[in-house]
Design goal:
globular, Dna Ligase, domain 1, 35% helix, 29 helices
């Protein structure tokens, strides 16, 4: 009720510490956290309890606290955890290491049974510097600041703290989570996303146990503030068991990259890059593009910076011609402004100031890097001070690189004092800007909530499932080409039609009926790549050649792969597109992110070329086009060597159909559609190979049929057209990321009383972070339904209708995952007309489908209309002990 469920853990007002009075806490982490709390600056109520000497439970009950810190030997952890629950603690921290999965599971069960939020086991604790709280074994308390750190490595946490003290970087929070922890990465991200003290987040990650929860928390955090992730354990792609090109060419690290981009976060590849990104984040920089201007007193370092920009996909920012002409007379005679802002070796501090001011005003520049290299007669400290003086003028990132070792130290100190990120090499500075600007690009991916494919012809999902069930009934997992194409056809993906020949004569007859030339391919569930065993023949031009090709292919395949089951040879007419391009569309299942869609250059060299892009499903047209544009083969899809441009729209539709397949058929494990021939007329699948898994069969058709996806698709099934009293209708539908402006309009038009009833404040509009939080939601753990009215202007009947949101109902699942909290707001002129009642009924129906048991919320005591509505819907109205100004309303679903 507007209080984060982890606030008692990470922002406690009172703490009880279970430990030994003599300081013998057992293992070193427990001892370290006990000492840190004893000698810290925490201003809340702090109580120490020695379990060996304390009295009865009645006496211990006076030590009631938000947080219980268990600074004890591991064997006493379970007993202390139960005692903390009996004392009324809302959360617990167990600082320890080396606890195995079985014991961790026992502790988790105790915490869940007692309703405790447990950080640990195998955690080194956390810090909240602004509160003076050091409940960690990570070292001294960090300086307060805007940066939140979540780490699965205690050693890295300690190293980051040590680095931060030297570089004057402050933290809002530092949270250490290890293996088997109860409150994990997702919980920590969820808290930091809602923490006002945290402006940016960095994450060190070693593994993910639940992709859906991780992606949900990461997407929400990245929608509100920049998130930088460093992941260890980058293992190579592919595996010996891969049965398709997709599985052979896509590795888990590739999928992780795609998942992070889709979540709106930024990945760095090294510990050094993480520090560089932390410098920029701590300075609260928000890049809005990829154009970086370079102001330098030497051409060589500037060229190095420009080269690295080209390497990592940035653009060199250039001054507008008019701005450059106005600036030139104020600079030394040898200065050059054509590409770099090279001030020449004669540059002085004033020249830096003038050039930086010009770059700050230029809209064609998204960020500026100031480089200084030691020169005879130059004053590096004065130049740094000039750069520092311009800091307040910049509404865009300003980075610095003062080259050298000992000599530039005073200059670097001046830059740090001005909160300007400073680097020792041009490449490091450019890389840091690239990481931050990637945040802007990935935000576009984050905003993509795929709409329903209702504008496309409905697929025959039942037919596709029957094909899969038939294959699994035969104890097979690999579909034949004929079965694979039948699956594609069920989703209206164009395919070349093939027929199966079981003898040379059949091949001759089929080829003659189809018309020459034809293609012939071996049909075997045991052969992954037909060309490896000479199982493909193209441009077969006559009946006799078709018969001879059949016989020769059967003999060759039997010799090269003697154990393979061979059904025969498929015969199909050669694709007519002579100037078509060959592309590849595939799908692979990753652990833990689930299905991933792959696109790239096609043909027999698909693995060797390594030209691919991937996205987590579901896709929409923006994501499909983004996939295509990221590949090298995209360059051949335009007008190329006399061939007209290929149909990108057809290719997008094919990718959307594949996304639809992946969403609706959880049994799919791997898929190759290779090649897909695309030309100006459309796209057609020439060959296909699909692998399925029977363990997912029970999921198909269930209410939670999308649980195999890391990102849920837009829940179009909750859309309903509702009648308005007095005539007309409105649309009740789930909220979309693009609804921010409509939602803002609703809030702005509310009366002050209505705004206070909903937000318990007099705010006239929602801040951008709250708008993002309300519209970019995870449909798995929360839902918001909006009532949308299509209004027309009577004075301009030919003008298109515009949408208006007239009400919103919402629920968010509580941490117990069995109850939820709701909210409701209706436009003033629509109160009392049944809109609020219908919105509440709709949101309750969704909660029931999700398996939730209870819905609850807080209503102001002086809001009789809402209390009346709640009673009419069957809610029980109770007193709210924590605040008499509110009533707690609850309904069993």
């Amino acid at each position: 009720m507007d209080k984060h469920y982890l606030k008692p853990l990470f922002a406690p007002e009172s703490i009880v510490v279970f430990g030994a009075a003599d300081g013998q806490a057992g293992d070193s982490p427990a001892l370290a956290v006990q000492q840190a709390l004893r000698h810290g600056a925490y201003q809340g109520r702090l109580h120490f309890v020695d379990l060996r000497t304390s009295g009865t439970l009645e006496e211990l009950s006076h030590a009631h606290a938000d947080l219980a810190v268990l600074a004890l030997p591991q064997e006493q952890a379970a007993e202390a955890l139960e005692l903390a629950a009996r004392m009324g603690c809302a959360s617990a921290l167990l600082v320890s290491h080396g606890i195995d999965a079985q014991r961790a599971r026992q502790l988790r069960e105790i915490a869940e049974r007692e309703g405790l939020q447990l950080l640990g086991p195998n955690s080194l604790g956390f810090q909240r510097p602004a509160a003076g709280l050091n409940a960690s074994a990570c070292g001294p308390l960090a300086q307060p600041g805007p940066l939140g750190l979540v780490s699965q490595s205690g050693a890295l946490s300690a190293s980051m703290l040590d680095w931060a003290l030297e570089n004057r970087v402050g933290f809002s929070s530092l949270i250490s989570v290890g293996p088997h922890t109860c409150v994990g990465i997702d919980g920590a991200l969820d808290f930091l996303a809602n923490d006002a003290q945290t402006h940016s987040i960095i994450v060190y990650l070693e593994g993910i146990t639940n992709a859906r929860r991780f992606m949900s928390a990461l997407r929400m955090a990245a929608s509100a503030k920049p998130v930088i992730v460093l992941k260890a354990g980058r293992r190579p792609a592919g595996g010996e068991a891969a049965q398709t090109h997709s599985a052979a060419s896509v590795g888990s690290d590739d999928v992780f990259d795609s998942a992070l981009s889709r979540a709106g976060a930024v990945r760095v590849r090294s510990f050094v890059e993480l520090f560089s990104a932390a410098k920029c984040l701590a300075s609260r920089y928000r890049a809005v593009g990829r154009r970086l201007a370079v102001v330098t007193n030497g051409g060589g370092p500037g060229v190095l910076a420009a080269d690295w920009m080209n390497e990592i996909g940035l653009e060199l920012g250039r001054l507008d011609a008019g701005a450059a002409a106005a600036l030139r007379p104020q600079l030394p005679p040898l200065a050059s402004l054509s590409d770099l802002l090279d001030l020449s070796e004669d540059a002085q501090a004033e020249h830096y100031r003038i050039a930086l001011h010009a770059a700050a005003q230029d809209r064609a520049i998204d960020g500026v890097l100031a480089i200084h290299s030691p020169k005879a007669g130059s004053d590096g400290l004065a130049a740094a001070e000039a750069v520092a003086a311009t800091r307040r003028q910049f509404g865009k990132p300003l980075l610095a690189c003062w080259m050298g070792d000992a000599t530039p130290e005073p200059a670097r100190a001046a830059l740090r004092a001005a909160d300007i990120p400073s680097f020792r090499t041009p490449e490091a500075a450019v890389g840091a800007f690239g990481n931050i600007s990637t945040f802007y690009r990935n935000q576009q991916l984050l905003q993509q909530t795929p709409p329903p494919l209702s504008d496309l012809r409905a697929p025959d999902v039942e037919c596709a499932r029957l094909v899969i069930e038939g294959v699994l009934a035969e104890r097979r997992t690999v579909l034949t080409e004929m079965e694979s194409k039948a699956l594609l056809s069920a989703f209206h993906i164009p395919v070349t039609h093939a027929a199966l020949a079981r003898s040379g004569n059949e091949a001759m007859l089929l080829a003659s009926q189809m018309g020459f030339p034809v293609a012939m391919k071996i049909d075997s569930p045991d052969i992954s790549h037909k060309s490896d065993v000479q199982g493909v023949a193209l441009d077969v031009a006559s009946g006799a050649q078709a018969r001879d090709t059949f016989d020769e292919m059967m003999r060759t395949v039997a010799r090269l792969q003697p154990g393979a089951r061979i059904h025969g040879v498929t015969v199909q007419k050669m694709a007519a597109a002579r100037r078509g391009r060959e592309v590849f569309v595939g799908m692979v299942t990753d652990d833990p992110f689930g299905p991933v869609i792959v696109f790239g250059a096609g043909g027999v060299l698909v693995e060797l070329m390594g030209d691919r892009a991937m996205e987590l499903p579901p896709l929409n047209p923006f994501l499909a086009r983004h996939m295509i544009e990221r590949t090298r083969v995209a360059e051949t899809l335009g007008a190329w060597r006399g061939a007209p441009p290929a149909s990108l729209e057809a290719l997008e539709q094919l990718l959307l159909r594949v996304s639809e397949m992946v969403c609706e058929l959880p049994q799919l494990r791997e898929m190759d559609i290779n090649p897909v021939i695309v030309d100006e007329h459309g796209a057609v699948a020439v060959d296909a190979r699909i692998v399925v898994d029977g363990t997912q069969l029970a999921m198909a058709g269930s209410a939670d049929r999308y649980r195999h996806l890391a990102i849920l698709p837009y829940p179009a099934r909750f859309e309903q057209v509702q009648p308005l009293p007095g005539g007309g209708e409105y649309l009740l539908r789930p909220v979309r990321p693009g609804d921010g402006a409509l939602l803002q309009q609703l809030v702005q038009n509310l009366s002050p009383e209505s705004r206070y009833f909903r937000f318990v404040s007099s705010r006239a509009e929602l801040p951008p972070s709250m708008l993002a939080r309300f519209t970019l939601i995870d449909y798995d753990r929360e839902m918001a339904l909006v009532a949308v009215l299509h209004e027309t202007n009577p004075a301009a009947s030919d003008a298109p209708a515009h949408e208006r949101i007239i009400g919103v109902s919402r629920y968010i699942t509580n941490p117990d995952r069995s109850s939820c909290e709701f909210s409701l707001v209706v436009a003033d002129e629509w109160n009392g007309k049944g809109i609020g009642s219908r919105l509440m009924q709709g949101i309750m129906d969704v909660a029931r489908e999700r398996g939730l048991k209870t819905m609850e919320g807080l209503v102001l005591s002086n809001n009789p209309a809402m209390l009346k509505l709640m009673r009419g819907l069957g809610f029980v109205v109770e007193a709210y002990p924590e605040d008499p100004d509110f009533r707690l309303v609850r309904h069993a679903l």
